[in-house]
Amino acid sequence: MKKDIHPNARKVLFKDITTDQNFIIDSCVETDEKITYEGVEYPLVKVEISSSSHPFYSGKERSGGTTGRIEKFNKKYKLKQ
Hints:
By secondary structure, the chain is an alpha+beta fold. It is 15% helix and 32% strand. The protein contains 2 helices and 4 strands; from the N terminus they run E-E-E-E-H-H.
């Protein structure tokens, strides 16, 4: 990040509260919370979804009640033969 364009750029710890996973990246995000991680103090941003908890990236897609949908579709759009 460039200092003139991103004056508040620094290392920030993003914590996924779902999986308790930590990510340290450069960011300009404003936060008042701080956390000490591995002996270093970082600004803290808590997130609910990250690459460690999102179904697309984690490969752990949840099935949300699909039973009956196919039967309902077939009944509604039944083709006459």
